[in-house]
Specification:
By secondary structure, this protein is of the alpha+beta class. Helices cover about 40% and strands about 25% of the residues.
């Protein structure tokens, strides 16, 4: 009995001091890897699609959590995420700890990848124009135009500085300090991971709004005007469209209905259109609200709902909508 007790005590002491019996006792052994090894293992896990191994290193704001979990959720964005991963997983890299800066977890990373999102802005603008012209779901079907636009593009070959943050609850590869790495790792797709489409409706008005996180980037409004339309001709209605013909990033369509009402469709790509022109039209501030230098989805929804509209945000199964509410 004394001998068995002695062995147990030695094992326990070894676990506490050296980590020798930690696994047998159920305690995690101390991680002896260097910071560059942690970065290397993290990137290798991405290449292999081993998202479970990546998860412990995410902080609460890391969009790769949605990217990894979304591929398993089965929603419409799952296929977009899978395509983005397939297009980006074959990157190459080297990682080397910066001598003398080990206390800050500083690592020099040389990452060679490819851009995959250069076609996305054009795809959104084309979808806005198509839905404005035809009244279909070309723009509101966000996973379709976003996924179709992803393709291997120009090479990206850069040397980056990244950091491993050592916390009391474990090591992290911060989304803010290492954002450039995450953007290059995903070929630029990191910025598009938390995209959503919000629909706000009233009796005669409907907005469909695309946003990246809280930042609105595109919109199509459909409205039916019933007052003041008596005596309008097709030529009068055509004048509505012509008034926007010279504005970049703006699409317009008007149709005279059988009952004398007029259906108006108005599409905007906020990355293309002049913010000054949109403010003069009342699109910004009167309809969409700015916050902190950008058009805020949260603020706009709040304003619409106060005005009696009903709004619903669709993240297509990614989990981005619930994440934005936190």
């Amino acid at each position: 009995m004394k001998k068995q007790y002695y062995v147990a005590v030695v094992c326990m002491l070894s676990a506490l001091v050296l980590g020798g019996c930690a696994e047998k006792l159920g305690f995690p052994a101390e991680d002896k890897r260097t910071d560059d090894q942690i970065i290397s293992d993290f990137l290798t896990a991405y290449q292999e699609g081993n998202f479970e191994a990546m998860e412990p290193y995410f902080d609460e704001d890391n969009l790769l959590q949605l990217f990894c979990q979304g591929q398993e959720n089965g929603g419409e964005m799952a296929e977009v995420y899978k395509k983005a991963w397939e297009l980006t997983k074959d990157f190459t890299f080297t990682a080397e700890a910066v001598e003398g800066k080990e206390a800050w977890g500083e690592v020099t990373l040389h990452l060679q990848s490819n851009d995959i999102v250069s076609g996305v802005p054009g795809a959104m603008w084309a979808a806005i124009q198509a839905q404005t012209e035809n009244g279909d779901d070309s723009f509101s079907n966000l996973p379709k135009w976003l996924g179709d636009a992803l393709a291997t593009g120009e090479p990206i070959d850069e040397e980056l500085t990244v950091y491993v943050s050592h916390r009391s609850d474990g090591d992290r590869i911060d989304s803010s300090a290492c954002r450039e790495m995450y953007e290059q790792l995903t070929g630029g797709f990191y910025d598009y991971i938390d995209m959503t489409m919000t629909t706000c409706t009233a009796e005669t008005d409907n907005y469909q709004i695309a946003a990246m996180g809280d930042s609105i980037i595109g919109m199509v409004e459909t409205a039916v005007q019933t007052e003041g339309t008596e005596g309008l001709t097709a030529e009068d209605v055509q004048g509505y469209e012509d008034g926007f013909g010279m504005m970049d990033g703006v699409a317009a369509k008007a149709g005279l209905m059988d009952d004398g009402s007029v259906e108006l469709r108005f599409g905007v790509d906020f990355n293309r259109a002049s913010s000054t022109a949109l403010a003069n039209l009342g699109v910004i501030s009167d309809r969409l609200n700015s916050y902190g230098g950008y058009l805020s989805l949260v603020s706009t929804i709040s304003s619409f709902e106060e005005g009696g509209m009903t709004c619903e945000t669709n993240d297509f199964g990614s989990g981005a909508a619930s994440s934005e509410e936190k």
